Amino acid sequence: MHLTSLTLLNFKNYEHFEGNFSLKINCFVGQNGIGKTNLLDAIYYLAFCKSYFNSIDSQNIKHNESFFMIQGFFEKNLDKIELQCSVKKHQKKLFKRNQVEYDKLSDHIGFIPLIMISPSDNELIYGSSELRRKFIDGIISQYDKVYLDNLVQYNHVLKQRNALLKNFFEQNYFDNETLEIWTEQLIIYGEKIIKIRKLFLEEFIELFNKNYEFISSQKEHVSLNYLNSINDDFKAELNNYLNRDRLSHNTTIGPHKDDLEFCISGYSLKKFASQGQQKSFLLALKLAQYEFIKHKKQVKPLLLLDDIYDKLDEARFNKLIDLVGNNYFGQVFITDAHPERISKLMSSKNIESKLFNIES
Ligand SMILES: Nc1ncnc2c1ncn2[C@@H]1O[C@H](COP(=O)(O)OP(=O)(O)O)[C@@H](O)[C@H]1O
Ligand SMILES: [Mg+2]
Questions:
Q1: Which domain holds residue 236?
Q2: Does ligand 1 lie within 6 Å of residue 62's CB atom?
Q3: Residues with Cβ within 8 Å of residue 259, at least 6 apart in sequence
Q4: What pTM does this model have?
Q5: pLDDT value for 214
Q6: Residue 330: what pLDDT?
Q7: Which amino acid residue places its CA nearest to atom 3 of ligand 1?
């Protein structure tokens, strides 16, 4: 599967962009702030119906304009597919496949498997647990629609349960029977989510370790641990924490509190690892994500590499280009602020590639 062409209208800093792409490696080069990352983001939009960076759609409309449009033509198993995303100020986002609008955007997720690797990934280390849950959920949702549905349902029920807890708290009143209606559903969806997350991580951790070994020259031991907020029985634990939930008018336990712990030689990656080790860790996470999705979907995902040079020293960068240049990987999009550096590298390696010089 690959993207053959992309057209943008009023997307971020682009009034208009048109490009036809190589099946293998595409390099967006140009000075800082020129719009290289924005191109990757436009491609990301076509896969996930949203920006990787800014979740408020209207803020991705070019300043002083009233709409944006992203159109891409893909080829998947010899089929030609047109995807189009358009956002008008104060209107619902429209997302179309072959001119037909989706009822639910979630139906599109997974159709275009894609992995973005960006400097902002370090938020996975430094940010809140929500980002790490989103990382896991984002991968699973690309191949398991039922999981995504369960997750949507779980979040809906959670919201209702919390609203009711708040209502009881404010009215100084409590009716356990009404609360139980939501609690029971929370358990049904929650247990399914936990089960799938566990199964996923068993497989994923193995891929992660393999990729970390490949990238890092050191032999330090890294680990990825699932911190499940439920020890044993979700129902029993919700019951145990009922008083706490009532006081905080919030559901304080459940898969919405799960986390992933990143460790190096047994210590916290955030606190004790060097920058280089952190970068390798993140890259290994993303490459494991690539392998995992490739395996599950039996298709080579698109790979977007944003300013990856900043992440790695030259030797590791070379290693990575060798890796993504080979046949295991499919179409790749890379940004770099140094045109000479990347074009030299591509020609020295004899990889099919196309260079796009982005200018204002
Ligand atoms: N909604 C928007 N309207 C106009 N310009 C925008 C919008 N959002 C971002 N930009 C501009 O896009 C530029 C950044 O583009 P980016 O793709 O990050 O550059 P780089 O080439 O460094 O990757 C900035 O100049 C920023 O002001
Ligand atoms: Mg950039």
A1: 129-298
A2: yes
A3: 129, 132, 133, 227, 229
A4: 0.92
A5: 87
A6: 96
A7: 62
